[in-house]
Design a protein that fits this description.
- Helices cover 81% and strands 0% of the residues.
- The chain is an all-alpha fold.
- The model has no long low-confidence stretch (mean pLDDT 81).
- It is built from 10 helices and no strands.
Length: 206
């Protein structure tokens, strides 16, 4: 979505993607969960309604996982699309991109091969926070789709006043949040040559 918007900025396609992205961002995950459940499970009957699937059947478990995954991912699809589009447009205005255009390199090749890698760096940093936010939204998705998981475990613990279970679940979420942010920072350092140079120069100092 970000590549399509950056390829034709200001056009009809860009406005359509912006409308969809803002719609995804502004709709809470529990509303998306209920909508997907009513539309694709109850009305169209394309996906199973509730549960986690047959034990031992990977295909059936993945089929049951499709709608909860879509409900959790919808908001972040829009957010990342807008963030990456802004970064791509900034990179496309730099001097090296003008040089590539002067040499006759196609616009799509410039986008995918030369602009995407530097533009994706801010998105990688946001993804670390995104994984932590997904765990918070998983509580609603697991309750609505009646799935076993950390979110439903915390919900059951709150409902039954089982505070050690709630504390343990929150601790796991916080730990996962810290680890994903650490991985995102390390990935950003590996993807950015300037950061790699700083790390190497820091190691060489006595």
């Amino acid at each position: 979505l970000a590549l399509i918007s950056a390829r034709w900025p200001g056009g009809r396609t860009d406005r359509l993607v912006a409308f969809l992205s803002v719609g995804f961002i502004s709709t809470p995950s529990f509303v998306v969960s209920v909508f997907l459940l009513m539309m694709f499970s109850v009305k169209l009957r394309w996906f199973p309604v509730l549960g986690a699937g047959e034990s031992g059947d990977i295909g059936d478990q993945l089929w049951h996982l499709a709608l909860p995954t879509a409900a959790l991912a919808a908001g972040w699809i829009g957010y990342i699309a807008r963030l990456l589009r802004a970064s791509l447009l900034e990179v496309l205005g730099e001097n090296q991109i003008r040089t590539l255009r002067a040499y006759g390199v196609s616009e799509m090749k410039i986008l995918v091969k030369y602009a995407l890698k530097p533009a994706i760096l801010p998105t990688v940093a946001v993804l670390g926070m995104g994984f932590g936010e997904l765990l918070g939204g998983a509580v609603f998705a697991e309750v609505i789709f009646n799935r076993p998981g950390l979110g439903s475990l915390i919900y059951d613990g709150i409902r039954t006043r089982n505070y050690p279970v709630v504390q343990g679940g929150v601790f796991v979420i916080v730990l996962f949040y810290v680890l994903t942010n650490l991985i995102a920072d390390l990935s950003q350092s590996l993807l950015d040559p300037r950061e790699r140079g700083r790390l190497l120069s820091g190691r060489q100092q006595p």
